[in-house]
């Protein structure tokens, strides 16, 4: 008989089965829920999670810098270029993967780059996960080459234990000629953007497009890289002739060396500017002002010393007296300047005086008055006026430069001797409506749109027919009561002497790609015709007499071996009676068939009596004596022995090539002073031959000028101009023309 098995065998009951089914269903539902959730995550947040995954892998993204385009002069000389440099970058995380890398790497860094070992090790201990730390900046390729070989497999000096260091490329701007054409070129900021001049105006052209290199390790640990190369900027070829520019800047500096700290502390003048232009194209051949600065170090505070200080709005600080030309920066003032004060005075230094500052032009405006009268038919050019030394207009006695009167004055002689009275008569014959119309035709009150950053707006600084009074018309006729800037004036004057064609002035003539292909030629652009050819011929005839005539006010502007034409200017500034003047000379060469215009402005020369246009004419003479032979113009005038010696010395100096700053300036400055004394003697002799009322006056032993016994003013023996005497009364309403640089009319 079988024995029955007994024990505690557990039975799989129905209840247990139910629980198992419930558990299975719950697990199944959980998986279904997770699946649904995963689908939603993939659909809505897939890219975000993908980025998170990639960020946890070895991944890098490097910016590839572009090379900024070059700036070249008309002859192909490089004025600005970009040099590739490198920052030394430390990747602490990569270096600290193994302690065996630390010592070889640190020792190599110290040896090659003269870095501090303790500082590097301290940084590693404090920032072990850092992957970007700049150890050294802006090193040249020669400076990094040895270290580069140490970390490059296959090189003889390769060391596998040097890890965690790489080189970040970038570009820095270089200006091989230092301060040459600094006002024209401008410079770049630390982020490679242009500031001032061509660098700013053509910033988009010169700038390229940055590239990008992406790299990461994929799931199979393979390095994947994608590179978008940088696009280099285009280059610009300018109309500036580097040799002419060098000549101009040399003589502006000589002028400053001669007059700096002369009558007062400070530079030789508040500003001195010069522009040379091709009158048949609008090409600017040279443009410079003083003070200047080194483009490679534009923030050198030493360049500020001697400048008039400015306030936060850029206006010159006023001196204690109305007779002060400003408050001039000294070393002591520099030490007390805040960063903000430094920057606002740097801005004044960096501005291009030739396009940014406005002033009253003075008598260089007289040819425009004559041209307006002739072109409109208001005068024929054969008129003769009686100058008694003043003319009463609107109840005001407005004086001539010669307060004793010039007698019978023809239109031509009115330009030659710079007679204010003759100009006022011509303006009265022309009328307000016609006069203001022609002013706009000549471009007064309008921007020239020269391709440089910072051109001043003179709109509102000239009169309209609606707001001009007879007194305003009288003073405007000889260049007072309205404001211009230098580029506006020389552009307008060029149209007077080239047949009436007003060309838009420009600095750049061609844009070239990084591969050397010409992208764009910038052709001369005629905007309008201001006067007829016959009127233009008359103006050239009259202006030639300013230099060649026996009574011409611009005789001292004639260069050795050449005859030129032009017009002098001596403008009173605001407030009237402050004895502060802007003097100038607008000239052209050759006199017989003008091609080149030159304009020099001296803003408040550092002398006791500023109202003498010879401060400008002598600069013009010095510049053209070198420039015209360089431009291959044949001489037309017989040379004196003194002029022959002068030219021989210039040929020895070879000034048409770049010279070191300050080279041979002292000797030349002394020569110029001697020449001035000789000229003064010649002028005195000529005046003695003509016989004038002031010849009965006593002579000042220091200057050689006559002394008016009634006023004490010094009298120019040739022109009768009273130095230190203001010709204009304060009309009381000229404050509406407050200029950036305020600006008679000689």
Fold and architecture overview:
By secondary structure, this protein is α+β, with helices and mostly antiparallel strands. The strands form 8 sheets. Strands 2, 3, 4, 5, 10, 18 and 19 form a 7-stranded mixed β-sheet that branches. Residues 53-58, 655-690 and 733-745 have low confidence and may be disordered.
Helices, strands, pairings?
Blueprint: H1 14-55, E1 59-64, E2 71-72, E3 78-90, H2 92-95, H3 102-113, H4 117-126, E4 133-139, H5 141-150, E5 165-174, H6 182-185, E6 187-188, E7 194-195, H7 197-201, H8 203-206, E8 211-217, E9 223-228, E10 235-238, H9 242-259, E11 269-278, E12 284-290, H10 331-336, H11 339-350, H12 353-356, H13 366-376, E13 384-387, E14 390-393, E15 396-399, E16 407-410, H14 411-416, H15 420-430, H16 432-441, H17 470-476, H18 486-497, E17 501-503, E18 508-512, E19 518-521, E20 526-529, H19 533-548, E21 565-572, E22 581-589, E23 596-605, H20 614-630, H21 641-653, H22 665-690, E24 698-699, E25 706-707, E26 714-715, E27 722-723
Parallel strand pairs: 2-10
Antiparallel strand pairs: 1-8, 2-3, 3-4, 3-5, 6-7, 8-9, 10-18, 11-12, 11-23, 13-16, 14-15, 17-20, 18-19, 21-22, 22-23, 24-25, 25-26, 26-27
Helix pairs in contact: 3-5, 9-20, 9-22, 13-15, 13-16, 13-19, 15-17
């Amino acid at each position: 008989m079988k024995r029955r098995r007994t024990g505690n065998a557990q039975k799989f009951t129905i209840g247990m089965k139910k629980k198992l089914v419930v558990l299975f269903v719950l697990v199944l539902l959980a998986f279904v829920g997770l699946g649904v959730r995963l689908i939603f995550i993939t659909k809505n947040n897939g890219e975000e999670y993908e980025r998170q995954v990639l960020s946890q892998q070895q991944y890098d993204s490097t910016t590839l810098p572009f090379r900024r385009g070059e700036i070249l002069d008309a002859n192909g000389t490089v004025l600005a270029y970009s040099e590739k440099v490198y920052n030394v970058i430390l990747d602490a995380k990569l270096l600290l993967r193994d302690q065996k890398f630390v010592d070889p790497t640190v020792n190599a860094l110290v040896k090659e780059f003269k870095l501090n070992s303790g500082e590097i090790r301290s940084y590693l201990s404090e920032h072990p996960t850092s992957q970007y730390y700049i150890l050294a900046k802006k090193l040249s390729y020669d400076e990094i080459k040895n270290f580069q070989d140490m970390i490059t497999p296959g090189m003889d000096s390769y060391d596998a234990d040097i890890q965690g260091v790489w080189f970040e490329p970038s570009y820095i701007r270089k200006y091989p000629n230092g301060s040459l054409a600094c006002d024209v070129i401008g410079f770049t900021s630390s982020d490679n953007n242009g500031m001032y001049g061509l660098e700013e105006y053509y910033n988009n052209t010169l700038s390229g497009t940055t590239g990008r290199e992406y790299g990461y390790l994929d799931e199979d640990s393979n390095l994947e890289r994608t590179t978008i190369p940088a696009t280099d900027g285009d280059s610009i070829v300018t109309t500036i002739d580097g040799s002419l520019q060098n000549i101009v800047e040399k003589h502006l500096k000589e002028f400053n060396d001669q007059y700096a700290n002369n009558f007062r502390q400070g530079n030789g003048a508040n500003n001195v500017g010069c522009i040379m232009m091709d009158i048949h194209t609008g090409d600017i051949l040279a443009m410079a002002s003083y003070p200047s600065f080194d483009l490679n170090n534009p923030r050198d505070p030493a360049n500020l010393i001697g400048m008039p200080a400015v306030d936060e709005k850029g206006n010159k600080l006023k001196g204690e007296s109305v007779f002060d030309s400003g408050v001039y920066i000294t070393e002591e003032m520099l030490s007390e300047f805040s960063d903000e004060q430094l920057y606002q005075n740097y801005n004044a230094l960096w501005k291009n005086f030739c396009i940014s500052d406005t002033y009253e032009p003075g008598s260089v405006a007289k040819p425009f008055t004559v041209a307006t009268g002739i072109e409109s038919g208001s005068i024929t050019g054969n008129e003769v006026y009686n100058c008694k030394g003043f003319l009463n207009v609107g109840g005001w006695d407005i004086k001539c430069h010669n307060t004793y009167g010039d007698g019978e004055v023809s239109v031509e002689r009115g330009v030659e001797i710079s007679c204010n009275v003759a100009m006022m008569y011509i303006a009265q014959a022309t009328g307000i409506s016609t006069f203001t119309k022609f002013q706009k035709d000549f471009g007064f009150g309008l921007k020239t749109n020269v391709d440089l950053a910072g051109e001043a707006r003179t709109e509102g600084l000239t009169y309209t027919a609606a707001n001009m009074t007879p007194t305003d018309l009288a003073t405007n006729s000889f260049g007072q009561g309205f404001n211009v800037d230098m580029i506006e004036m020389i552009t307008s004057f060029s149209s007077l002497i080239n047949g009436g064609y007003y060309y838009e002035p420009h600095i750049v003539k061609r844009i070239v790609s990084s591969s050397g292909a010409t992208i764009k030629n910038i052709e001369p652009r005629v905007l309008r015709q201001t006067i007829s050819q016959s009127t233009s011929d008359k103006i050239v005839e009259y202006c030639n007499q300013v230099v060649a005539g026996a009574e011409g006010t611009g005789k001292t502007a004639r260069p050795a071996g050449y005859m030129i034409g032009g017009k002098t200017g001596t403008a009173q500034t605001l407030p009237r009676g402050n004895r502060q003047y802007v003097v100038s000379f607008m000239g052209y060469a050759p006199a017989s068939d003008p091609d080149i215009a030159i304009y020099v402005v001296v803003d408040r020369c550092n002398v006791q009596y500023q109202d003498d246009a010879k401060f400008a004419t002598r600069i013009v003479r010095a510049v053209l004596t070198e420039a015209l032979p360089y431009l291959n113009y044949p001489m037309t005038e017989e040379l004196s022995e003194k002029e022959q010696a002068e030219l021989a010395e210039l040929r020895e100096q070879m000034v048409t090539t770049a010279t070191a700053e300050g080279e041979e300036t002292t000797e030349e400055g002394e020569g110029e002073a001697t020449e001035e004394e000789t000229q003064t003697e010649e002028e005195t002799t000529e005046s003695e031959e003509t016989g004038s009322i002031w010849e009965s006056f006593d002579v000042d032993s220091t200057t050689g000028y006559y002394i008016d016994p009634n006023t004490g003013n010094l009298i120019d023996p040739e022109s009768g101009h009273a130095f230190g005497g203001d010709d204009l009364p304060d009309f009381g309403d000229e404050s509406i023309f407050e200029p950036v640089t305020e600006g008679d009319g000689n």
